[in-house]
Design a protein that fits this description.
The complex is a heterodimer. By secondary structure, chain A is mainly beta. Chain A has one helix and 18 strands. In chain A, about 5% of the residues lie in helices and about 40% in strands. Chain B is an alpha/beta fold. Chain B has ten helices and twelve strands. The longest helix of chain B has 23 residues. Classes of the chains: A mainly beta, B alpha/beta. The interface between A and B is large, with 45 and 50 residues.
């Protein structure tokens, strides 16, 4: 099966996967074959049972540009997950995010994603022992990447709000950012809106990394991330998000969960 | 219906959902619309007079000179989805104002034929109550009448925003071949209020702050004390949020304070007693508001909010499954950044 790949690095500047798929009819199987080979080579991949990892996403999404997705992980010390990637096969940038998990163990991740065409949505977990497990679901949606920016958009770019759960075992992170996909049109000018997104989100709990995420244009505008654990998350909770264009770092902590974002200059090496 | 917002918000057709859902979609595009045909249709089918149901295109004179065609309570992706909104016209001594044109050129043409059966006066105004697909795609049918197309000041931009979406998702509802110029936006804008005279028949148009959409317009016929609410009022069909939940509740309160003899909702049966359906709509919107605020305060995800919010309000509404989850999502996205 052949499929057409059109490089569009300029659109997806800086994304891990500078590839655009431009074939509407391509069955997702071919796309997945490609992605799997790209990210995992020929490593064996199991299809885990739901008690270990589950992927929840509505097959009929209420909003293709903001489709809720939930990952749940069993807190099983024998099979701790160190990394999870989320893919939407048929999106122009299929890799939604790469999550590196720290401690305490994260048992649930919720986020909102763009789904551009009918597609398989997948989560691939990499265990500490190197084993791979995948869950997938089929989602009927289209237009999530080209949907115009929300009329409700606005606010302060980079504002971060943190909402800890009442039991201190979860944290809801909201980031004010257009997360422009590069495939949206400015209705006033008819021009393409350049890709501009949150490229990295890091959450620390009690001074240690809880979650480190590389993110791209398939995350919805005003990105949200909710993480939960079976254990209390040690304070303080500190969130840092990086802007793909300016490399600005937007931060917030539970000591000031609703303070407008503090924009810090990027460190010299671009990452800390 | 509504749906749309072009982003009014989100896109797609996923159809399924979107569209359907809400109507909303319509507009927005991204908002989306979507859908295909699907269930749900049964629930409301049979209500209204959808032309798509093989009964011909019915128009009733509900007050002197006030003619209404009732849309069917179908999802946005069901067969007959182009005939789900209440549309109609008002006849003065000099000319006719059309209020919303339906979700396809076909429905627009049927409405135009209905006008022609009632009067030989020219159509001088085509008024759109907002940008959703089920209310505007029939505009093209009136082009040859050379009317002034009238809408909320924000409608012009909303139509621009929605045009690509309409062309992609609703091409079959336009003339063949579908072309951008068939999606006709307003040439006369209403910033706050405007009175049009049809000849001894003044119509007062009121432009609302963002509520159901960002471009809601109501039309009041002083002669008969008839208020066309557009989609600020849904009766029987679950309201579809595509603008601002907080703004919509405020608009409902203002509408409830108005005394009118007849109200023509965007969807559902016209009524001489609008206070009751306005209260019912408000009850739903308020439950959505308080429920989503509660979820956010507890740090719950959108997924959880969709499971938890609003279920107590379900009874009596059509198209709940198609519309409610999206409303929760829209409310969540709005209230997430509430001051």
């Amino acid at each position: 099966m052949s499929f057409r790949l059109i490089a569009c690095a300029s659109l997806l500047l800086g994304l891990a996967s500078p590839i655009c798929i431009a074939d509407d009819t391509q069955p997702s199987g071919a796309m997945w074959d490609f992605l799997r080979a790209k990210y995992y080579g020929d490593r064996p991949m199991g299809l885990v049972d739901e008690t270990y990892m589950s992927l929840e996403i509505p097959s009929n999404t209420p909003d293709p540009a903001a489709t809720p997705l939930t990952l749940r992980f069993a807190d099983d010390p024998a099979a701790r997950i160190k990394r999870v990637r989320v893919f939407v096969d048929n999106n122009p940038s299929p890799l939604v995010a790469t999550f590196d998990l720290g401690s305490p163990p994260v048992t649930q991740i919720d986020l909102r994603v763009r789904v551009d065409r009918f597609s398989s949505v997948r989560a691939v977990a990499e265990k500490a022992d190197g084993g791979l497990e995948m869950r997938s679901a089929w989602v009927k949606a289209s237009g999530g990447c080209s949907a115009p920016p929300s009329a409700a958009a606005g606010g302060v770019l980079g504002e971060v709000r943190l909402r800890p759960g009442e039991d201190a075992k979860s944290l809801l992170v909201s980031i004010r950012h257009p997360n422009s996909s590069g495939f949206q049109i400015d209705p006033r000018t008819g021009d393409n809106i350049p890709a501009h997104y949150i490229s990295h989100i890091r959450i620390e709990a009690g001074g240690a990394a809880l979650l480190d995420a590389e993110t791209g244009i398939s995350v919805s505008e005003n990105p949200t991330l909710r993480i939960a654990s079976d254990q209390s998350l040690p304070a303080p909770l500190v969130v840092e998000a990086v802007d793909s264009v300016t490399q600005a770092h937007f931060t917030a902590s539970t000591s000031s969960p609703r303070t407008a974002a503090t924009e810090l200059p990027a460190p010299p090496n671009g990452r800390r | 219906m509504i749906v749309l917002r072009p982003r009014c918000r989100r896109p797609r057709r996923r159809v399924p959902t979107l569209l359907v859902t809400t109507l909303l979609a319509a507009a927005a595009l991204p908002c989306g619309a979507g859908a295909g045909a699907r269930a749900g249709a049964g629930q409301g089918a049979g209500q209204g007079q959808g032309a798509g149901q093989g009964q011909g295109f019915l128009v009733d004179e509900l007050a002197p000179g006030v003619y209404v065609h009732r849309g069917a309570q179908l999802p946005l992706d069901a067969p007959g989805h182009d005939d789900i909104a209440n549309i109609g016209f008002i006849v003065g001594s000099r000319c006719v104002a059309v209020i919303d044109t339906g979700g396809s050129v076909r429905i627009g043409l049927a409405l135009r034929a209905a006008v022609r059966r009632r009067t030989s006066l020219p159509v001088c105004y085509v008024i759109n109550t907002h940008v959703h697909v089920d209310h505007v795609l029939g505009n093209e049918a009136f082009k040859d009448d050379r009317p002034s197309f009238v809408g909320h000041a924000a409608l012009a931009q909303a139509m621009v925003r929605s045009r690509p979406y309409f062309l992609k998702e609703y091409a079959q509802d336009l003339d063949v071949p579908a072309a951008p110029e068939q999606v006709i936006g307003p040439d006369r804008l209403v910033a706050t209020e405007l009175t049009l005279d049809l000849g001894n028949r003044p119509l007062t148009l009121h432009a609302w702050p963002t509520a159901h959409t960002d471009c809601d317009l109501t039309v009041y016929d002083r002669k008969t004390s008839t208020l066309w609410t557009g989609d600020l009022l849904f009766i029987e069909r679950l309201p579809a949020l595509d603008g601002s939940l907080v703004g919509w509740i405020a608009a409902v309160d203002r509408l409830a304070a108005q005394r009118v003899k007849l109200a023509i909702p965007g969807h559902g049966p016209p009524t001489t007693e609008p206070k009751e359906p306005l209260a019912r709509e408000r009850s739903y919107l308020e439950a959505l508001l308080q429920g989503v605020r509660r979820e956010l305060a507890a740090g719950e995800s959108l997924q959880d909010a969709m499971l938890h919010v609003g279920g107590d309000e379900r009874s009596g509404w059509l198209l709940w499954d198609e519309v409610h989850p999206r409303n929760v999502a829209r409310a969540y996205e709005e209230l997430e950044w509430e001051k």
